[in-house]
């Protein structure tokens, strides 16, 4: 009994008295340097998080959080972490989609499945337009900056009838060529004199989908770079050349590529475009998709990882979607691009080191004082 | 007060708990040179500082090994020795005597029993768990068979394949078995009619399925109202002359593409869930 008493009652825990009142010395106690440093780090972190978006952006994000983001709306976005536990490949000849990880098909397979569904005995739309929906990762080298949305027309190797109106602006000096440009389908042909007006804002270019330019105007349109942004004609996007009718034709038949950031989750993005029709040959559609993907991927440094999270093939109208494998079309990062990212990382590391050095110096100074 | 404390203390001492802490010195004292006098390690405060390497309580205890006493779905067959999650084992298997701990005695005892029952175990028909889960999910479906309102159609394997795909079921064409009597249209008397067809998984497992014909059109003004896609009641099945059936399994892969599945199921289909 005595030993038990010793075991229970004489243990320090049972002898512990709760101090209700007493000296509040602890309250006056100064905080240690360690604590100070921690607090400062926390505060800085908070400030950085606040600075990430502007005031209006923050309000918008809060407002949009209540809605379903466009990326989450049907057919949704692929989040690889959500299907980690599912098996990779089906083993049986009958399988249910939700029991396995997302299956990626080749363009040919996906098109064949769509064709079956659009055959005369079911939906009867064998010439349905094919929609390519790209789910994008919008992060850039800089943590606070996302890839900006853009609108452009991508000329594709196999044009098709898209039944969309395209308004194209042509820049050309020669009056004769101006006439030719409007005849061959440009909405309007502008000369050197209009450029100042555009800069001043007297002539709005917002309504035009794309611009083409004759080489004789190449030096004059340079000030418009900031206004036209992605629509600015250059050798790189093919908008600058000698033969205007051909250029205009190319862009009239091109694919309208629209990259949009997600308003709720800024690191996500979406891009929707029509890349062909079901009646076209598989190879033709494949080529078109390859060009569109190449144009899309040029918006972001490939060294950051894949810009495209998942590519889906749909028909218009139609709810069926099949994920397609686009691995082979993704650009391979060049050494230059990788270097760029690494340089940034190193810089950041150095900065951090400097910061810690400074703080340690501060401590030393304090100590000596 | 004292007595309850005592009881608690006694219980605590009886039951083993996982509360081992592994610590490491922050500052290691210098080793005493041979022949020297060892310093008291408590002389310096620094020598009394430790950092945690591991807390046993925070680590998951991991699975336990049990011997199954009967076939348990998704886990294993009778007399299998399996590693299984602690919670499931304790809350389900061990309590309901579906399994016992893999103690040295029991391992020996049940392996002997397994040898004795070898013939009986081999003769038992065991449906693979994978088949069962797929079959169960498939049976819940009523596949809407969308057919065009204006164009001629007939229900064939290809059409069924794309109808199934719209419900998220991907099949090979040769796994679908349809009734011999052709169904063609457009025929609005067939609208919302239930039809029976069979899916054969791996040429081994026949799953009876239900489809419902629904006429569609791209033109919005011509849409028909189809009845809901929920599982039909028994009366409804009776109205369409469909018997309630359950999946059928064989050990050998005998249900090939040309196998008369309809005839076979008419005679052998299980009418109760297995």
- Helices of chain B, by number, come to 8
Rg on CA atoms of chain B, Å: 32 Å
What value does the Rg of chain A take, in angstroms? 30 Å
CATH superfamily of the domain at 120-162 and 256-352 in chain A: Ribosomal protein L1/L10, rRNA-binding domain
Query: Which structural class fits the helix and strand makeup of chain A?
Result: alpha/beta
The CATH architecture category of the domain at 120-162 and 256-352 in chain A equals 2-Layer Sandwich
Biggest interface, CB < 8 A:
A-B, 28 and 38 residues
Uncertain residue ranges of chain B: none
- What ranges of chain A have pLDDT less than 50 throughout 5 or more consecutive residues? none
Give average pLDDT of chain B, whole number.
Answer: 88
Biggest pleated-sheet summary of chain B: 5 strands, mixed
Kindly state the percentage of residues in helix of chain A: 25-40%
Question: What's the helix-strand series of chain B?
Answer: HEEEEHEHHHEEHEEEEEHEH
**Distance N terminus to C terminus of chain A?**
60 Å
CATH superfamily of the largest domain in chain B: Ribosomal protein L9, C-terminal domain
Entry keywords:
heterodimer; A: about 375 residues; alpha/beta; Rossmann fold; about 35% helix; B: about 270 residues; alpha+beta; Ribosomal Protein L9, domain 1; Ribosomal Protein L9, domain 2; 3 domains; five-stranded mixed sheet; three-stranded antiparallel sheet; 8 helices
What is the element layout, followed by pairings?
The complex is a heterodimer of chains A (369) and B (274).
Chain A: H1 2-9, H2 12-15, H3 25-28, H4 33-51, H5 55-65, E1 94-96, H6 107-117, E2 129-137, E3 150-154, E4 168-171, H7 175-183, E5 188-190, H8 194-200, E6 210-214, H9 225-228, E7 240-241, H10 244-252, E8 255-261, E9 268-277, H11 282-297, E10 308-315, E11 322-324, H12 335-368
Parallel strand pairs in A: 4-5, 4-6, 6-7
Antiparallel strand pairs in A: 2-9, 2-10, 3-8, 8-9, 10-11
Chain B: H1 2-14, E1 21-25, E2 50-55, E3 64-68, E4 81-84, H2 86-93, E5 99-101, H3 104-116, H4 118-123, H5 129-140, E6 142-148, E7 153-154, H6 157-166, E8 169-171, E9 176-177, E10 184-185, E11 194-201, E12 205-216, H7 234-239, E13 248-249, H8 261-268
Parallel strand pairs in B: 6-12
Antiparallel strand pairs in B: 1-2, 3-4, 3-5, 7-10, 9-11, 11-12, 12-13
